[in-house]
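Final report, section 2: Outcomes. Of the targets proposed, ABC transporter G family ATP-binding protein/permease is the one most frequently requested by collaborating groups, and we therefore present its record in full.
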Amino acid sequence: MKVIEINNVTQTFRKGLSQKTILKNINFTIDSGEFVWLKGDGGAGKTTLLSQICGLMTPSSGEIKLMGLDPKDANAKLYVGVVLQETQVPKNMKVRELLELLRSYSPNPLPLSNEEILKMVNLKKPEILDSEMAPLAGSEKQRLYLALALIGNPKLLILDEPTRNLDAESHKVFWEQIKLCHEQGVTILMTTQYQNDSEKLNELATRIVKLHPFSEIPAEGQLLEESTLENREIELESSTNKDEEISTIAPVTPRNLLDIFKKQFEFEVTQLRRTPTFLLGTLSIVGFVPLLKLQPGFQPGQVTIDQLIYLCGIILFTIAIERLGKRVAIERSEGWLKLLKTTSLPPVVYIAAKITSLLIVCAVAIFSVFILGYWQLGIHASLGLYLSVFLGLIIGITPFAILGLELGYLLHPKSADSILSLSLFIIPFACGVPLPFKPELMQDLVSLSPFYHYKELVLSIAQSNSDPRVILHLLWLIWAFGFFGLSAVWVYKRDRAIVK
Ligand SMILES: Nc1ncnc2c1ncn2[C@@H]1O[C@H](COP(=O)(O)OP(=O)(O)OP(=O)(O)O)[C@@H](O)[C@H]1O
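The predicted structure is given below as tokens.
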């Protein structure tokens, strides 16, 4: 079976007004069980080619198939383990949590405990499992990345300079592990710059191919077979490693997306809990509720639930668009998204988990505003009214949270901060706050804005009138949910979601 097929692939990058060609008409296939060493000088385009194979980049022309599928398809990566340069995991997450998360993506993960998996990559200290990522040394992080690639029990390993930062002992263990994987039939594609890998690669690789820089293409083509080491016996392990052997050929059970969602959701919630600045920053706006008492001539019960709704709106849009967008932009520039995109995590599950965890923060914020409103401002509406307004606010904010996530992936991280902050000034006008110029035209345009329909929907619920337009507002929000949802999946998959 062909695990990788590369047909006539060309890659050009725009450099100012000119185009820079990196790969030209590359044709290449890798069969199951091969161990391919992809050689080439620095800058030849090896990482570019591997990124295309992993679905992080679409070639300018030509076609790539990974496990017979489009590499951007999450299912193509069900049996692929990847170690790439410039990927990172969130610093405040623990090693155990990362292993569990990556394990949950695989339909048939290695039947080993987390401790055993860490031992495979020479991470033997027991306390490392409960250590956060931040204090780990470079070598320990690199070993963990290999563990994350192996935990899903891959049939194909794509390794881009996997031995960088490794100490001598870990280097030895790395090669023992790779030899074992190869003997168990795992296909391997590897690049390295390090001289001390050459001896092992010369011994183990079944094919050596060299990628020439575009400027020095020989007549035979840019990617050249340097040697084919055929008939190299792959000694399958004898009795001692039967378990591992069986685990790779065990029948695959289809993945339960709900289980992946639960794990991803748990991970997102833990990440939020460990980011107190995010939580305190957003929830501190709730502290403005008692300030409404400072209005001249304030009497208890004088402030209406409508005013609480406007305050909730400000808080929810801050959380869902500004805070979430910035968070995603940081995650993206740090390299976590790049790592996630090399896994088989379905984009929809990722987006759903992120939005659901954020809605919990929104729910806490609304609940706090209502409690303060009741207690400090004397807004004694019925429980039923509070509950229906709560539901209207929380369900209605969902499309905008998806929009916030999308903006985090669309905007360049450097500009995301200012653009998202600016959006908070624009949103009130999109909701229908009158503008000082051309009010009639703006009013017409505003009625097309989902922000306006969100405001109108919640106000209609609060006034508990039987406004027939409630259904219209609801339909607008459903439309916005579908539109933002589909475009968020597209934005997640697109090449420029990876920051270079
Ligand atoms: N997104 C991008 N935009 C513009 N140029 C890029 C982009 N990605 C890669 N390049 C350029 O493509 C060339 C090849 O880079 P690549 O990282 O693929 O080489 P490499 O063979 O892996 O080198 P190394 O071994 O040093 O990592 C480099 O000149 C790099 O600057």
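The first helix runs from residue 46 to 53.
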